[in-house]
């Protein structure tokens, strides 16, 4: 059925059609540092605290605290969370009752249902989101602070026919 070729390897002829050029594949180096992201699925329930060194997305439900100050936290549209979050940036699309503390930005999307307190550098609330709570935005260090109780004198030119009491009332409205 098959004939055995008794010729040595050097005696065997290789036709040009049988030569296959082998190319080595070297993937390009990843120039961006890819951050790891952990996803907690919608059928998972957690009671307790989470600390981590990576980004976190919760689509399930959790009751507890999250501490990942140098990484981002996201609560997906199907997610439910009750507790306190400390993260670099926070995005809420699900239901949350609790407090958020960040050094970065908080985003409350249009799908969100939020009840609690937020302390952040900046915040955005999507049109249609439910938000009930308090917001404290960090001041930028170069801004001048105006202390309550300190009065500022404003001079308003009087127009003909205005008494000085009418001008004072306008000045109080400006302050």
Summarize this, please?
The protein has 175 residues and is mainly beta. It contains one helix and 13 strands, in the order βββββββββββββα. The chain has a domain of 102 residues.
Architecture overview:
By secondary structure, this protein is mainly beta. It contains 1 helix and 13 strands; from the N terminus they run βββββββββββββα. The protein has a domain at 36-137. It has one helix at residues 164-174; strands spanning 37-40, 45-47, 50-51, 55-58, 61-68, 73-75, 80-87, 90-92, 95-102, 105-108, 113-120, 122-125, 130-137. Strands 2, 3, 5, 7, 9, 11 and 13 form a 7-stranded parallel β-sheet that branches. Strands 1-4-6-8-10-12 form a 6-stranded parallel β-sheet, with no helix packed on it. The longest helix has 11 residues, at 164-174.
Question: What's the SSE blueprint?
Answer:
Blueprint: E1 37-40, E2 45-47, E3 50-51, E4 55-58, E5 61-68, E6 73-75, E7 80-87, E8 90-92, E9 95-102, E10 105-108, E11 113-120, E12 122-125, E13 130-137, H1 164-174
Parallel strand pairs: 1-4, 2-5, 3-5, 4-6, 5-7, 6-8, 7-9, 8-10, 9-11, 10-12, 11-13
